[in-house]
Write a structure and sequence with these properties.
The protein has a 6-stranded parallel beta sheet, with helices on both faces. A two-stranded parallel ribbon has the order 2-7. By secondary structure, it is an alpha/beta fold. It is globular. Helix 1 runs parallel beside helix 4 and helix 13 runs parallel beside helix 14. It contains 14 helices and 12 strands. About 40% of the residues are buried.
């Protein structure tokens, strides 16, 4: 539920001090990159790109399909497939192998591009208090995995004086060295870019949950309403300061391309950046995203009082907006539809499909998330998957639909599951 990123393979724990990539490792990376470049040059990539542009402009298209197995990638790209030994090279190899699987095998509508993105190397000081996690697993070149619980550090609101705004500290020297290494190894095959995804959502409530705890939040709306408002205001102001810092320092990148936006779908659009764009990316040139999955236990009235007033001014800064992830948005629709330039709306497995269809019509992107559990067994029920997709597409035939398979914790240790799912989804989408 938490910490979704465009690139699900996680580089936050990679040790960039050792940039000694040997000849054998360079050859492995170059061979993978060459295969990706060949796929990226195929005409079908341009066809998919145009399809996303029309879809994001709310023009009638067939339903678009995207599959990100998330933790299931660990069962697709296994340890024995990673041949490099240097930590940075292993991470890059995993990224390239993932891209290659998307291009050769997945069968969804993701556009394969001739780029290799390097992220800024940086630290984020956080909010001053840090949760204590129990469980979970961290791997330096693949997705975080395993369930965990945490002990929230803000046990009493009197400790709010221990909080501070997050501060981003960019290691420009190391970033430049990593960028130059990638250009040296891959630059004649793929275009190496410096492009960082600094956040997934500006919804604030993930940070709230980690600081205060899920159960405490439910009590706070009754027992400590003023303090909860004060904390939400602090989170808003700190997030705004972070966004302003990134914008003023030229650290933002456009996401009107093959960048994952919202909780599903891609950013391809001709509506961004703004007409007065002069090269320096501003928030208003980008897609924004917010959600509040962790407050699903709050009533719409409580959500409107304690959460939405702090999300709205952040979303007002973006050129186009997405809202929602795993939370069913039916009860909150009359509130979130006030978001300016709202375009992509999540319809989770727990949402009422017919009701959301009536609410969204053809005025918003109906970002439908089938239940990921259908891929969790070694042998999937293809007939049931087909029936479910056909049923929803029949109901939503007048909507602007995308079918997003994500939030998988396992794919039954069978990579064929995602390939078969994409094939079924494509066949049913083409029937429409």
């Amino acid at each position: 539920m938490f910490e979704h990123l465009n690139v699900r393979i996680n580089d936050s724990h990679v040790d960039y001090r050792n940039l000694n990539v040997n000849k054998k490792e360079r050859q492995i990376l170059r061979e993978l990159a060459s295969k990706i470049a060949e796929i990226a040059a195929k005409p079908e990539q341009e066809t998919k790109k145009k399809l996303w542009i029309e879809h994001n402009a709310l023009k009638p298209t067939r339903p678009l399909i995207f599959c990100d197995p998330e933790n299931g990638w660990n069962e697709i790209i296994t340890d024995d497939q990673i041949k490099c030994e240097n930590e940075v090279a292993r991470y890059w190899e995993a990224v390239l192998r993932k891209e290659l699987f998307w291009g050769e095998s997945m069968g969804d509508d993701r556009v394969i591009e001739p780029y290799f993105d390097i992220h800024h190397i940086y630290t984020d000081t956080g909010w001053g208090l840090k949760e204590k996690r129990v469980g979970g697993e961290i791997d330096v070149y693949r997705l975080d995995g395993g369930s965990y619980k945490w002990e929230a550090p803000l046990k009493d609101y009197s400790d709010m004086n221990k909080l501070h705004f997050p501060e981003i500290k960019v290691d420009y020297e190391t970033t430049q060295k990593v960028l130059e290494l990638a250009q040296e190894i891959l630059g004649d095959i793929l275009r190496v870019r410096l492009k960082t995804i600094w956040w997934w959502s500006v919804g604030l409530t993930d940070d709230l949950a980690y600081l205060r705890g899920l159960e405490a939040i439910l009590y706070d709306v009754y027992d400590h309403p003023d303090e909860l408002h004060k904390l939400m205001a602090f989170l808003y102001e700190g997030t705004l300061a972070k966004l302003d810092f990134l914008e003023k320092n030229g650290l933002l990148s456009l996401n009107n391309d093959g960048t994952f936006v919202g909780s599903g779908g891609y950013g391809w659009t001709e509506e961004l950046p703004q007409q007065d764009f002069a090269g320096k990316v501003r928030l208003k040139d980008m897609w924004g995203m917010s959600e509040s999955q962790v407050t699903v236990g709050l009533s719409p009235k409580m959500f409107e009082e304690f959460i939405f007033p702090y999300q709205l001014p952040l979303l007002e800064k973006f050129g186009l907006n997405c809202y929602g992830c795993c939370e069913p948005l039916n009860p909150r629709w009359d509130i979130i539809k006030k978001i300016p330039r709202l375009r992509r709306v999540s319809v989770s497995p727990w949402a009422k499909i017919e009701d959301m269809c009536e609410k969204l019509e053809d005025k918003y992107i109906f970002s439908w998330k089938p239940h990921p559990g259908v891929l969790a067994t070694p042998n999937i029920d293809e007939d049931q998957i087909r029936q479910d997709i056909r049923r929803v597409l029949k109901i939503t035939r007048n909507c602007r639909v995308e079918i997003i398979m994500k939030d998988n914790h396992t794919i039954g240790k069978n990579p064929e599951n995602v390939i078969k799912w994409c094939k079924i989804a494509r066949e049913e989408a083409e029937r429409v």
